[in-house]
């Protein structure tokens, strides 16, 4: 049997994970002394409520090697193949701890993929792996396909402020300050090696959306045969307008929706709108 595992920053809820027949390793969110397992003890709605009312920014914690070993040891005993797809190694030590766990378990039929991304991009990569598994691909074939597929998955977001990303150590003070001082809406995304960066800025969400669309059009063409996902942090008050604009300008018809969960929400902050898509080969 092929077991597909991911971490909770894929923002795949537990019910959906059961539907996909995958397993989730949770990261943790810490508010003061209260520690929560992402999407197990703490769901997005409650998280954003806590975030709005907290005095200090929460922190996040990656899974320990032992958290992965529990899954790996069980797979080894049952002689299952394992494909684990993790949050970008450019954002977290999750991938490195998974590799350490594999070494400790000493079982070769474990395949660990660094998604070089997060949230809905990681979700689409996991969903692709599931579809390949269900079509009868071998573990080795799935890994080969996913290593290629992940390079085609793009994610961009418009955030209210970069302050959360700076406080969480994901961006420099210089990058964060520029947006805050000029009251700009920054456009963020992943560059090479899974690192976050600012791709543009504009005054107001509407102009930022226009700039985001230009950015997408300048890149490789969207593969409309692959899924597109629209997601948000906090509340969804501005997401409909954002989605309709993208549909009109980019010819998108079928859209999946998602809510960015506690771990990524800690660093993005509320009020962000994101698009994830797959480029043509």
TrEMBL record:
**Ranges annotated as spanning the membrane:** none
* Amino-acid biosynthesis listed as a keyword: no
Q: Does the keyword Cell cycle apply?
A: no
* Any Pfam family the entry gives: DegV
Q: Which GO terms describe its molecular function?
A: lipid binding
Domain of life of the organism in this record? Bacteria
Fetch the Gene3D superfamilies from UniProt.
Answer: 3.30.1180.10, 3.40.50.10170
- InterPro entries attached here? DegV (IPR003797), DegV_C (IPR043168), DegV_domain_contain (IPR050270)
Name this protein carries in UniProt: DegV family protein
Keywords for the protein's UniProt record, in alphabetical order: Lipid-binding
């Amino acid at each position: 049997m092929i077991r597909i595992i991911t971490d909770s920053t894929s923002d795949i809820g537990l019910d959906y994970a059961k539907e996909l027949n995958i397993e989730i390793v949770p990261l943790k969110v810490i508010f003061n002394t209260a520690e929560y397992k992402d999407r197990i003890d703490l769901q997005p709605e409650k998280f954003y409520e806590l975030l709005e009312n907290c005095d200090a920014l929460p922190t996040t914690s990656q899974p320990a090697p032992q958290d992965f070993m529990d899954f790996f040891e069980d797979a080894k005993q049952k002689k299952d193949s394992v494909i684990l797809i993790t949050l970008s190694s450019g954002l977290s030590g999750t991938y490195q701890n998974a590799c350490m766990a594999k070494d400790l378990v000493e079982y070769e039929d474990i395949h660990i993929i660094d998604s070089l991304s997060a949230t809905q991009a990681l979700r689409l990569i996991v969903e692709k792996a599931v579809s390949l598994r269900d079509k009868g691909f071998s573990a080795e074939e799935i890994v080969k396909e996913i290593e290629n597929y992940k390079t085609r998955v793009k994610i961009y977001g418009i955030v209210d402020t970069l302050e959360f990303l700076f406080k969480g150590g994901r961006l420099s003070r210089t990058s964060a300050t520029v947006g805050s001082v000029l009251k700009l809406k920054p456009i963020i995304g992943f560059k090479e090696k899974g690192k976050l960066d600012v791709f543009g800025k504009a005054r107001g969400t509407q102009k930022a959306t226009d700039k985001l669309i230009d950015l997408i059009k300048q890149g490789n063409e969207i593969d409309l045969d692959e899924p597109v996902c629209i997601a948000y942090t906090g509340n969804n008050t501005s997401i409909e307008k954002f989605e309709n604009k993208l549909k009109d300008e980019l010819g998108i018809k079928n859209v999946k929706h998602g809510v960015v969960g506690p771990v990524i929400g800690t660093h993005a902050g509320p009020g962000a709108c994101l698009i994830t898509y797959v480029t043509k080969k």
